[in-house]
Amino acid sequence: MTPGRERGLAALLCAAGAGLALLAAGRTWATVQAEDAITPLTQNLTGGDLGGAAGALGWAGLAGLAALFATRGRARSCVGALIALFGAGIAYASAAAVQRPNVLSAAGDKSALLNLGTEPAMDVNLWWMVSVTGGVLLAVAGLVTAVRGRRWPGMSARYERAAPAGNAAGGSTAGEGAAGEGAAGEGDPSAMWKSLDRGEDPTARTNGRR
User: Fold this and answer.
1) Which CATH class is domain 3-155?
2) Domain residue spans in the chain?
3) Is a pLDDT exceeding 60 seen at residue 176?
4) How far is CA 26 from the centre of its chain?
C-alpha cells in the first residue's frame, strides 16, 4: 500500500471512530425505572447524561483528524499518539458510564424521588457499545499514524513540486508576451495615438531606428 493510501485509510478510520462516538453520545444508553417510588417514574439517560466524556473525546478526535493532514514528520507521529489516547479514553469512559452506581447516581441527580428508599430497575442498551467501537477505531487510526505517519506525504507536497515549474513557465510566457507586445506595437496605428497621449514623439523614435 502506498503512503498516500495509508494516510487515507487512517483518516477514514479516524473519521469513522469519532463519528460513531459522537452519534452514540446523544442516544439513550440506560433506562431507570422506579415503580415503587411515591410517583412511579421512568428515566432515559443518554451518553451525555452519564458523564459526556466519550462525546467530548469524540470532538477531540475530529480535531486530530484535521491535524493529521496539516502536520508531517515527527509532529504527525505525536498527533497519532494523541488520537490513540482519545480512542482509548472513549472506550474506557463508555464502559464506565453504564456501571450501575454511575447510572443510578446520574438518575438521582435528575430526580430526587429515586433517593427516597426506592429500589429502581436498570436496563442498559447497546449504544454504549457503539461508542466503544468508535473508540477502538480511533485508537487504531492513532496507532497507525504514530508508527507510519512520518513517511506519509504532506498536504501541500504536490503543490510545492509543481510551483517552481509553473513559475518558470509563467515567467517565460510573460517575457514572450512583452516582446510580442513591442513587436505588435510597431505596426499598430493605435499605438501611435497612445504615445501621443503620453506626450511622446513617435516620429523621433522611428527616426532613431533608421
Assistant:
1) mainly alpha
2) 3-155, 161-209
3) no
4) 20
